[in-house]
Amino acid sequence: MLSAGLGTIIWTSVAFLAVVFLLGKLAWGPILKMIREREESIEAALQSAEKARSEMAELKNQNEALLAEARQERERILKEAREMKDKIIGEAKSAADDEARKLIEKAQTEIERQKNAAISELKNQVAGFSLEIAAKLVGRRMEDNAEQRAIIEEHLRNLSNGEQGAAS
Amino acid sequence: MAEKLRVPAIQTITKKLTTGAFYAFFACLSLGNNLRASDTMVANPAAAPAHAEEKSSFNAGEMIMHHISDAHEIHFFTLNEGAADEKHYALYLPVIIKGEEGISIFSSSHFYHNKKEATAAGKHVHYGAHNGYALFHEKIYTAPNGELIFDEHGHPTNAQPLDLSITKSVAGLFITAFIVLWMFISVASAYKKRRGMAPKGLQSFVEPLILFIRDEVAVPSIGAKKADRFMPFLLSSFFFIWVANMLGLMPFLGGFNIMGTLGVTIVLAAIVFIITTINGNGNYWSHILWPHGVPTPIKFILVPIEILGIFIKPAVLMIRLTANITAGHIIILSFVSLIFIFGQQSAGAGYGVGVGSLVFMIFMNVIELLVAFLQAYVFTLLAAIYFGSAVEEAHH
Q1: Has residue A5 been placed in a domain?
Q2: Which among A8, A30, A35 has the least Cβ separation from residue B169?
Q3: Which residue of A102, B41, B47, B64 pairs with B333 in a disulfide if CB–CB is 3.0 to 4.6 A?
Q4: What pTM was estimated for this model as a whole?
Q5: Per the structure, how many domains does chain A have?
Q6: Does residue A38 fall inside a structural domain?
C-alpha cells in the first residue's frame, strides 16, 4: 500500500491522462457548451417571458386607460346629448309659446278688428235705420246729406259713450 | 474467507444506494470475472500443507495488509482452505517485466502456483518463482535460478526489475477509466442529441454533479473567467476518483483499493502540482518569493515555508486521499477480523461478535459511500483552490 511502484505510476499516468484528454476532447467541451447554451436559452426565455408579462401589464394598463377614457367620453356625450335635448325641448317650447302667443295676439287683434268693423257696421246700419226711422217720423223724405249724417253720428257717439260708461 | 462474510451485508446496502444501471454493470462484470476465474483456477496441493499450518492462527494485521495492498491477482475466494484440495478462485493478471533481457509477459498464476519456501531472518517464508523472476510480498525480484537471497532483516537482496504488470489497482484503474469514458461520452452524445432540451436518464444524473463542480467548486475558487481552462481536469479527476472509490466498495470484485494506492494518488497530486506551477502568474510567485507587506526579517522565515508549501500542498492531497480510502477498507476489514479472532476462542463467541460486527460493517459501508464522494469532492475542491491561487490577480 505505502509503496509507490514505478509501474503503477506509469500506468496511472497513462490511464488518467488518457481519460483527461479523451473526455476533454469528446465530453467536457460539448457537455459544458450545451449546458451553457441551454442556460442562456433558459435565461433568454425567462427574460422574454418577463418582458412579455410587463408588456401585457402595460397593454392592460393602456386598455384600462382607454376604457376609462371611453367611459368618460360616453358620459360626456350623453351629458351633451341630454343638454342638447333639454335645450331643443326648451327652445321648441319657447318657440311654441311665442307662436301661440303670437297667434293669440293675432286672433285678439283680429277679433278686435272684426269687433270694431262689426261695431262700425252696426253703427252705420243703426245710422241708416235711424235716418229711415227719422224720415218716417218726420214724414218727409229727408235728404241723405252729410249734415244730417253728422248729426246722427254725433248722437250715436253720445249713445255709445253712454253705453261704454255704463259698461265700465 | 473474509470476503464471503462481508459480501451479503455490503451487497444489500450498495443495491439500495447505487443506481440500477451501475449495479447491473458491476454485477455483469463480477460474473464475467468469476467465470474467468474458474477457468484459470489451479489447485496447488503441494503448497497446501505448509499454507494450512501457517493459517492455523489468524493474524488480523497480515490479513488486512494483504487486502489493502496492491496485488498481481484479483482474489475472490478460496475453497477448502487448508485442505489438500484447496482451490483459489482468482483472476490472474498479466505480469509485465522489463528486465535486462528485455520485456517478459506472463500470467501471474505462474507465481501463485509455483511456490518456493525459504528461511529469511529465522522465519519461514514462501515466494513464487517463474521465468527467472520471483514474487515475494507482491514485489518482483530478479531470480535467475528461482532463488531469492535474504539479508538479516528478511528482505531479499536481489535486484528489482521494472514491474509494469497490470496489478489489481492498475486493472481497477483501467475499469474506472473505461466506466468514466463510457459514461461521459454517452452523456455528451445525449447532450448533442437533445440539444437545448431538458436532461434525461444518465444525463440528468450527472448534470447536477457537473454543475456542482462548475458552480460550487471551480467558479468560487478560480473565478468565472479562468475556471473554464481547468474544468476538464477538475471534472475528470472528480468523476475518476469517485468511480474508483465506488469500485472499491463494490462486492464480489475482490476489493479494489485504487485511490488507496500511493502510486495512483501520487500521479494525481503530481498533475495538480504541474498545472499549478505552469499556470502560476507573477502575483502567485511574488506571494511566494517576496510577500508584500511583511517585514524583511520575517520574509526570510516565510519564503522557505512558502516554497516548501508548493510541494506540501499536493503531497497533502495525495496522503489525504490515500489514507481516507485505505482507512475505510481497514475499518471494515477490522470488523471482519473481530469475528475470526473471537471465533478462535469459541464458535459461539464468533457468531455473537459476528452479529455486532455485521451491524457496524453495514454502518461503515454506508459511511464509506459518503467518503467515496467526499474525498473526490475534497480533492477536486483543493485542486481548484490551488489553481485559483496560481491564477489570482493582484489586488493590493
Answers
A1: no
A2: A8
A3: B64
A4: 0.72
A5: 1
A6: yes
